[in-house]
Design goal:
Keywords: Oxidoreductase. Belongs to the D-isomer specific 2-hydroxyacid dehydrogenase family. It holds the Pfam family 2-Hacid_dh_C. It comes from Daldinia eschscholtzii. This is D-mandelate dehydrogenase. The chain has about 400 residues and is α/β, with parallel strands linked by helices. The chain has two domains: about 140 residues, 3-Layer(aba) Sandwich (Rossmann fold); about 160 residues, NAD(P)-binding Rossmann-like Domain (Rossmann fold, 3-Layer(aba) Sandwich), CATH 3.40.50. It is built from 14 helices and twelve strands. It has a seven-stranded parallel beta sheet with strand order 8-7-6-9-10-11-12, sandwiched between helices. The chain has a five-stranded parallel beta sheet with strand order 2-1-3-4-5.
């Protein structure tokens, strides 16, 4: 392992080199078959380029050790010098100090395989990004959202940011289907009414008049990325729904045909045509559901959010539910997590299904996050293309000094 260019201060905690991954978290006797890494390349054809001194490139591994993909990690660790800062070193003041000291040398990549750890330093803003060595070429992280990282500034510094959206698409789309169904079949009301015999009988008699089949209904997708595409395919094939979508870029006709999806050129057009609107857009889209845009919705329409809580004015949505303009909503994400808007909480047993940012949370997603993050680093440092880049529009060439 190459030593860092500066010796850590005596009071600084030691920096561990990344150790072998823990055994895969599959319990003995499990009946689950090994998951497939859908759409994630499992080989790198190019040779990994050396670091500034011709040694192995250094990868800064932030967060927990790799747990699920020991074979890929063996390949990963053979190509790079992997340095994993301790939990104390990842606290923002200590992390900033370590970057200023060049404690980890001229590292070439940042690798964060879990969304639950590795974020102790807070937002990756100008303060942190300005301290990164010019040798950094890729930041590969778990998770779909990246509102905590200034991806434009990273790109302008020559660093490609790669997210884990591809690995989460299967889980999020499956969860979205459950939420969509809940809005048509008034599941919040059906579930809460099972608590007593009186409410059970009342719901049994009354829910029918509020429930609808999905077949032939118009599903409007705001965003047709990996997640939106899977929702479109599943809802069209399984339920016979009519799919419309709005995105900043129209998808190729061949993809639209395969998904049975029809493009509209504005959010207003989508809302006016849809029986249920599903948000699959990144947080950078801003607050797109508010009192103004809700006026475009059909009376009695439905709203599902599996994207980001910041996309929605929750006060306006609660008002629309109370007024009957929206019939039902299902929200997995919220503007002030872990706090949920009190007016929405009051409607949780009748018109709102509220979950705890659970859509992407499966073992298989975490397996994919790990695999995808490692493959992104290996691809970029081999001189190839990133698998899931999100900031190519701001990326400039960054020659390693």
């Amino acid at each position: 392992m190459a030593e860092p260019t500066n010796t850590p201060m005596p009071t600084a905690p030691p920096t561990p080199r990344s150790t072998s991954p823990a055994p895969a978290a599959i319990r003995p006797g499990s009946t689950l078959s090994p998951p497939k890494h859908l759409g994630i390349p499992t080989s790198t054809s190019l040779s990994v380029l050396g670091g500034p001194t011709g040694n192995k490139p250094i990868v800064l591994h932030i967060g927990d050790p790799v747990k699920y993909n020991p074979e890929t990690y063996t390949e990963f660790a053979s190509q790079f010098e992997v340095v994993r800062p301790s939990a104390d070193e990842r606290q923002r003041p200590a992390f900033i100090q370590a970057l200023r000291e060049k404690r980890w040398g001229d590292f070439s990549a940042i690798f964060r395989p879990f969304w639950g750890t590795g974020g102790e330093m807070g937002n990756w803003d100008a303060e942190l990004i300005s301290l990164l060595p010019n040798s950094v070429r890729v930041f590969a992280s778990a998770g779909t959202g990246f509102d905590w990282a200034d991806t434009q500034l990273l790109g302008e510094k020559g660093i490609v940011y790669c997210n884990g959206g591809l690995a989460a698409a299967e889980a999020v789309s499956d969860f979205a289907l459950a939420l969509i169904i809940s809005t048509f079949r008034v599941l919040p009301y059906c579930i809460s009414s099972a608590a007593t015999t009186d409410s059970f009988q009342t719901c049994h008699e009354n829910a029918t008049a509020q429930s609808h089949n999905l077949r032939g209904r118009v599903l409007g997708l705001v965003g047709l990325g990996n997640i939106g595409q899977q929702i479109a395919l599943k809802c069209s094939a399984a339920f016979g729904m009519d799919i419309v979508y709005y995105d900043v870029e129209r998808k190729p006709p061949t993809l639209e045909t395969r998904l049975h999806a029809r493009y509209v050129n504005s959010l207003e057009q989508l809302a006016r045509q849809s029986d249920c609107v599903v948000l699959c857009a990144p947080s950078g889209a801003g607050q797109i559901i508010n009192s103004d845009s809700l006026r475009w919705f059909r009376p009695g329409a439905r709203l599902v959010n599996v994207a980001r809580g910041s996309l929605v004015d929750e006060e306006a949505v609660a008002d629309a539910l109370e007024q009957g303009w929206l019939s039902n909503v299902a929200l997995d994400v919220h503007a002030s997590e872990p706090n949920i808007h009190p007016k929405l909480l009051a409607l949780a047993g009748t018109k709102a299904l509220l979950t705890c940012h659970n859509a992407g949370g499966t073992v298989e997603t975490h397996i994919g996050f790990e695999e995808l993050a490692m493959r992104n680093v290996m691809a970029v440092l081999a001189g190839g293309q990133a698998i899931t880049p999100v900031n190519t529009q701001w990326l400039r060439s960054n020659a390693v000094s």
